[in-house]
Amino acid sequence: MATPHIDDRDWSSLTTSQRIRQLEVEGYLVLPDLLDTDHITRLKAITATFETKAVDYSKYQRGRPNLQFDGGEITTLLNHPPTLEFLRKLFGDKVIFMHYGYARSEPGHPGISLHADGQPYGSKIFGFEGSCPVLVRVLYYLDDLTPEVSPFRVVPRSHLCLHADANPYKRYESHPEEVMVTAKAGSAVLIHHRVFHGNFPNIGKYPREMLAIAYRPAWAGPVADINPWDEQDLQSLPDEIRPLFV
């Protein structure tokens, strides 16, 4: 695989309209400095207690799904004000929460192949949640993304492609136009769920932690029914977060 272009631009210089265009056209966006050092420290103190499960392809990639009802700062992150402010401008509609998970890429992690999360007919992996016509995933990084420590990888504009190679059920080891994205801890990478993306190996000296939250606009529901939220779980949510689940 050829050395990919590294997208390490000054993301803080983009206006809101430029951010929206970047995400709509290129399929990815970095929002820097969303979490300060104290916030990261508090979140990492919680994630350190998680019981995680290794993925089938590597013992060095671990995760935990369904964090939305954990409570405390993990649940509060669902309604992080600067993120939700941007999403409301992006969608021009009510924002609906879809799913929430934790991932840790440890030294030795081999990387994740290029794939799309949006799958219009549903799948065994994503269920019918992947069939939403519009969905944005917010990937909060709790550690620095460097070229050595599992940086994000993406094929810009791949969500716009009409070619058979852009069938969202396909997977690729690499692509000549893929980009490496680095970022500081506390930043988030936002992606269109149809863009082909993954991450590079972790050949560094520390694990890379990430909290991933998916949202959609109210109009863009899945093509078939999905399991409703448990009413008791909904009642446990803070008042300001509950509207994201309706």
Q: What are the segments in which pLDDT stays under 50 over at least 5 consecutive residues?
A: none
The averaged pLDDT comes out at: 95
Q: Can you tell me the overall shape? A: globular
Helix content: 10-25%
Number of helix segments? Answer: 5
Biggest sheet features = 7 strands, antiparallel
Total number of β-strand segments?
A: 12
| Rg value | 17 Å
* Estimated share of beta-strand residues: 25-35%
What is the CA–CA distance across the termini? 44 Å
Sequence of strands across the biggest β-sheet:
2-10-7-12-5-4-3
Report on this model:
The protein is α+β, with helices and mostly antiparallel strands. The chain is 17% helix and 26% strand. It is built from five helices and twelve strands. The chain has helices at 16-26, 37-47, 72-76, 81-91, 231-235; strands at residues 5-7, 28-31, 53-55, 58-65, 95-105, 112-115, 136-141, 152-154, 179-181, 188-192, 197-199, 208-217. β3 and β4 (58-65) form a beta hairpin.
What keyword list fits this structure?
246 residues; alpha+beta; seven-stranded antiparallel sheet; five-stranded mixed sheet; 5 helices; globular
